[in-house]
Amino acid sequence: EAGVVQSPRYKIIEKKQPVAFWCNPISGHNTLYWYLQNLGQGPELLIRYENEEAVDDSQLPKDRFSAERLKGVDSTLKIQPAELGDSAVYLCASSALSVSDTQYFGPGTRLTVL
Amino acid sequence: KQEVTQIPAALSVPEGENLVLNCSFTDSAIYNLQWFRQDPGKGLTSLLLIQSSQREQTSGRLNASLDKSSGRSTLYIAASQPGDSATYLCAVSSTGNQFYFGTGTSLTVIP
After folding, report:
1. Contact A91 B44 (CB under 8 A)
2. Which burial class, exposed, middle or buried, applies to B16 when counting CB atoms under 10 A from its CB (0-12, 13-18, 19+)?
3. Whose CA is closest to A37, among A17, A59, A58?
4. At B84, is the secondary structure helix, strand, or coil?
5. Whether A56 and B98 lie within 8 Å, measured CB to CB
6. Do the Cβ atoms of B111 and B101 come closer than 8 Å?
7. How confident is residue B40, by pLDDT bands cut at 50, 70 and 90?
8. Which residues in chain B are closer than 8 Å to A104, comparing Cβ atoms?
9. pLDDT tens digits, residue range B63-94?
10. Which of A32, A110, B53, B108 is least enclosed by beta carbons within 10 angstroms?
């Protein structure tokens, strides 16, 4: 069974440029999460989807970040414009059910903003 | 807001030793607690999931315990091996469907 797929694995951009990350969860998983992880820190939840509905986006900086999960399968996280402080690893995870279930993580996208 | 703390931040042990990693949380109203492993430059791998009604879970050389009333969980690793070297993170899911991770314990097992 394929795991959570993320692309790209690495991205280097200049500040003020837009950037997008893509995630394909494990087949059949209804819940999808986007996390941000800074160096030496634990992941911080940005947004959680139940199917195509964003049920928790309280930590998403909505002035520059946006996300979508059309058709309730794969998802895209976008930053526009990117700032220096956005440099981090962006992790996607999925679970079969909601908060009571094990989360499976993708390898992440390492973003560097110059 | 839930706060999750992991102590120690780093740990180095000789191969073969048994060890304990600690995780504490401030709000005992949780759904579950999960222990993850993260290798450098990679995503997280789930090790054990303990539901709020459970006291412990075991998988191979790993045993995780949960004491909700005191806001603590421990991950016990028996007979450590160099391949166990990684960062170990705990995460709690709280009422309101919020997820909170600790900052992790970086483990090095010396051959």
Report:
1. yes
2. exposed
3. A59
4. helix
5. yes
6. no
7. confident
8. 46
9. 999 999 999 999 999 999 999 999 999 999 88
10. B53
Under 8 Å CB pairs connecting chains A and B tally to 57
Those of residues 61-100 in B touching chain A at CB distance below 8 A are 89, 91, 93, 97-99
Burial (0-12, 13-18, 19+ Cβ within 10 Å), A85: exposed
> Best residue in A49, A95, A105, A112 to probe B by mutation, most B CBs within 10 Å?
A105
Task: Give SS3 for B71.
Answer: coil
Reduced 3-state DSSP string for A65-92: EEEECHHHCCEEEEECCCCHHHCEEEEE
Amino acid type, A69: R
Residue A86 region, left (φ>0) first, then alpha (ψ -120 to 50), else beta? Answer: alpha
